[in-house]
Amino acid sequence: MKILVMGLPGSGKTWLAERLQSYLNCAWYNADAVRKMANDWDFSPEGRVRQANRMRILADYEKSHKRNVICDFVCPTRETRDTFKPDIVIWLNTIGRCEYEDTNDIFETPALVDWVIEKYLTDEQIEAIAKEINCVV
To answer: Which of 4, 26, 29, 47 has the fewest beta carbons closer than 10 A?
Structure first.
């Protein structure tokens, strides 16, 4: 199962992914760590698709070995989400805009999501989402 935790920079993606990962005991890839590993800080449309592809390759590797995986990254457009191909989408809609105007300009509200998170969650709420995910898995 590939779980995408997406949203604008500063929305709490990494915060939520880290907590979910501890409940789900699954692999976790953070976009900043993957960009650092690849030494690729290109945020052009092509760079964003390239990053979505990198994240997909890592997640597909985990999935092919029967492991569940969480990936947290902005994934700002339909094209990047289609490239990643998540099984579950958690959208952190906690902020209206971020500090990066180029990201604000291209961010497309996702049409298909499993959870929309509009405020920071308690540990009990995170655990409840993890339990629901485990029922799906």
So the answer is: 47
